[in-house]
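Section handout 9: paired folding examples.
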Amino acid sequence: MENITLLIGIVIVTALVFDFTNGFHDTANAMATTISTGALKPKTAVAMSAVLNLVGAFISVEVAATISKGLINEDSGIEPAVIFAGLVGAILWNLLTWLAGLPSSSSHALMGGLLGATIAAVGIGAVSVSAVFMKVLIPALVAPLVAGIAAMLATRLTYRISRNTEEGQVAKGYRAGQIASAGLVSLAHGTNDAQKTMGVITLALISGGVLGADADPPLWVIASAGIAIALGTYLGGWRIIRTMGKGLTDIRPAQGFAAQTSSAVTILASSHLGFALSTTQVCSGSIMGCGLGRKGGVVRWSTAGRMVAAWGLTLPAAGLIAAGSALLAIQGDWGVTVVAVVSAAAIAAIWFASRREPVDHTNVNDVEPAEAEDAGVVTAAVQAVSPPPTAAMEDAEKASDAPAKTTVSAP
């Protein structure tokens, strides 16, 4: 019992480490567009996001229940060592994609890690296949499309509504709207992503006999998960913020407002239904949608293609890392020790690699001018039917963007 208690403690700490990486990996979801348009200063933006992530963690436990009770059968004999291995797979994949500046899904990394470790250690019978399809895979395909279409339509609507508005009010109004909508995305992120760590810790407590079957997360689990993701958010995943704010499309205040509002509505609705979707995929889909919604806007499909490839690799890659870790961890204390030491060495290596070209709040918007990129037939076709922004809006946005804009990347 002593060993199991110690192992559960290790799992809880590892889960909170994952939650911390989730926070800085996903800061871009809420704040990339707000930072790139200059609506908020970078450090102010991540501080606001951190507080709202913490608040959001206390709103609901529906997604936590999906993780702790839905994906893996609790009576399958899964042990805390297996959960530890799943978390290792998720953490390492999160850090690798952060180093590359790719906004992959922390949620799918976690679920892929848990599924890979469980299958390797216990077998496919321990996994609820129907829950994986209904509450993970289908939302992963549908949510980014829904958010992207909503953002595209919202962008067109915002330009049409504001066509007769005075120039100064247009720019000021949408920047204020961006701050409000970014706050809503942060709140929504807390209701969805913080709960996934709550679910993992609860699953570990159930598997170790500390909690009874079908138990909800205790208050201390909810609080610790909320604090961990808030601290990670405040640290800021500046590499990914740069990719989402500058790499996908050139975002103006009206577009940023439309994208963030669409993301928040999609995430909040999914949290209410208990869908453990990827907030990263939702927010990336919204940003692409707002790029398509503005006349003359462009989506950089090469960057989008790399992101989609990372999305597709996340579940299997995190699962493979976790499966290898699980095969070692179930051998006993020495196996858990080996996994912990190797993981710590890998994390240190990734951190030192990131220091070669550091990205932080001082240079997050300092990117090299991108070469002209072919928008492709999809962008061209959508632009052809998009309502053009008014001259007043274009002049206002250009005037408000001029002091902070450092790149010219439109084709």
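Moving on to protein 2 of 2.
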Amino acid sequence: MAGRRALGRQFGWLWAAFVVSSYGTGLRFGAFPMIAVLVLHSGPAQVAALAAAGRAVGALVAVPLGPWVEFRRKRPVMVAMDLTRFAALLSVPAAYAFGRLSFAQLLVVSVAVAAADIAFRAASGAYLKALVPPEDLLVANGRFESTTWTATVVGPPLGGAAMGMFGPVTTVVADAVSYLLSALGLRAIGGTEPRPARAGASRLRAGELLEGWRYVLAHPTLRPLFFNTIVVNGLIMATEPLLAVLLLGPLGFAPWQYGLAFAAPCLGGLVGSRLAPRLVERFGQHKVMWTAGVLRACWSVGLAFVRPGVPGLVLIMVVQFGLVTCCGLFNPVLATYRLDHTPTDRVVRTLTAWSVSSSAAIAALTAVWGLLAAVTGPRTAIAVAGVLLLATPLLLPRRGNAPLETREQAASLT
């Protein structure tokens, strides 16, 4: 079966590094807001600012990293980003131990981690494209997607238990160590990586900062996919704080019920990512991506009808399972399609532009939906986001293009 295909020792180390850092991130889920509330006695406005500002400023900081990473060896950059996240996160328990932890430090660490996340993902996408044959990219991306959702299922419950038993900074230490282990795994890959050739001027030019956006916006299929993904991700993420307020407040759900409602359905992401190679082999890449993209927009509106008690809990889990399954199917197909249609010398800048735009959109829409909820109430704001999501399939491309390498081979034969 495609999903069981052996991709070699080097990919095995890359995947192992991704596994350990993903589980570390899953364990740390919710740690910063909890530290802000329990240790620093921050109010709701500060907690919201920590989430939004860290993501937004981190995205801004990451903008010049794309062109810088593009023309460097990707594995050393990935190791450097892992070590950056290790050092930044480890500063939190160190400051806590000496009684010096502050809200400003949490904010700075959030920015550093967010920027390093974007640079790491962009470099890893380019490295994966060079490491794995084109026909195996979907299998590789499916394994990464499966790992992400498995870590989301397991990590937060274990992290919550660890924080309850050992204190609020425990999972921050665990996540920091996971990045150190990830860096060691990347070093173990071995082999030589050629330094990318740079045409033209040797120094970074201001115009190169926008090269990723220029390429995406000029591409006939990447452009609609770009707008579709940033809008969908932004609307989904913008309602997460509102769901927490609604479920834990007026509807009276217990914290364990809230965690169960969103952790258990993540098994759907594992299902979707495992199905992706088989479905693409049978129906084709574009058809699977378009169908999954349409279906993932149809679920969130159901969250506006949640009620107290067991029926409400069941409704949330059904809606979330459907949404996550479609996302688990869509995401690896999109990641593979994006790599297939991006030249090697533009992969990092394209992925950086994509991640920066997504982070900025999530931060902006989270702030807007917070204001909307303050005026209309959380349920109405969630319903508005769900209705808008129903329109997002209009942004999906109706046709797919052949992969870039295929088009280049065809052109060379004519």
